[in-house]
Design brief:
Tetrahydropterin Synthase, Chain A, 3 domains, three-stranded antiparallel sheet, 8 helices, 24% strand
């Protein structure tokens, strides 16, 4: 073999070996535990492979990687008009993951973008059916309602929405002042109701006490003497003590009887 022929053979072998190495490297895939590969054969769905060592036939098969981990998606702030015509700004966070790689690649162009857009519209739709007080007080219930709707609509895409959390509900300053006035009025109303209930209960107890004291006239005198003893123990310089007319009448009769006995 001449030197020229040897050079041609070596060049051919080098090109062949390099091509074989390129084909081998392009055919080998390694998928992590949380990844799956959606494989297409001549443009048609073939199967889902992974995790681990995967071999793909070059030029005949193509593979799309799909991450199965839970994705935390921040829903941008949305302008919402509540049922009682109050404008608020609301943002939320959505937790979802892919449970069917085949549907996630075939049924929707970009499952992340599609889920994001659907979450925004669902957030506005659900919150628009509730009043402002419900948004502030029943946030857990609203989270469940939004999660249920999202999960039902993304099921066709192989997506599982695990949780939805409303993060912030921003209200206009004028509305904040109105809510503060409403809360203050509500506290005042409760205080008046509690005070009135206390007065009513006290009147019932006083009525019951009066009925007990009326059964024995001497009891009221003993009660007055006990009250006088309590007042005297407070070291007050001036004591104003009311005396009932019945007590004065009995006292005057006693004095009058003593005077008649003395004159006789």
């Amino acid at each position: 073999m001449t030197i020229e022929g040897f050079n041609i053979t070596f060049s051919f072998l080098s090109i062949f070996g390099l091509t074989a190495l390129v084909l081998i490297f392009s055919a080998v895939r390694i998928l992590r535990e949380y990844e799956r590969g959606t494989v297409f054969l001549l443009g048609r769905f073939y199967r889902v492979k992974g995790p681990g060592f995967i071999i793909i036939i070059p030029f005949l098969q193509q593979m799309v990687r799909v991450d199965l981990r839970t994705i935390v998606m921040d829903v941008p702030t949305q302008d919402v008009i509540s049922r009682d015509n109050v404008s608020v700004k609301v943002n939320a966070v959505v937790y979802f993951r892919v449970i069917d790689p085949e549907k996630a690649i075939i049924q929707v162009e970009d499952y992340y973008k599609a889920t994001s857009q659907l979450a925004q519209t669902t957030l506005r739709s659900v919150l628009g059916q509730h009043e402002l007080d419900e948004m502030l007080a029943e946030r857990d219930k609203l989270n469940v309602d939004i999660q249920t709707l999202l999960d039902a609509q993304t099921d066709a895409w192989g997506i599982k929405v695990a949780n939805v959390e409303i993060k912030h509900v921003d209200i206009d300053e004028s509305m904040i002042r109105a809510i503060a006035q409403q809360a203050e009025a509500e506290r005042t109303r409760r205080a008046k109701v509690i005070h009135a209930a206390g007065e009513f209960q006290a009147s019932e107890k006083l009525l019951a006490a009066a009925q007990v004291l009326a059964k024995q006239p001497q009891a009221i005198q003993l009660r007055y003497l006990q009250t006088l003893t309590e007042i005297a123990g407070e070291k007050s310089s001036t004591i104003v003590f009311p005396i009932p007319f019945d007590f004065l009448n009995s006292l005057s009769k006693t004095i009058a009887g003593d005077d008649k006995g003395g004159s006789q």
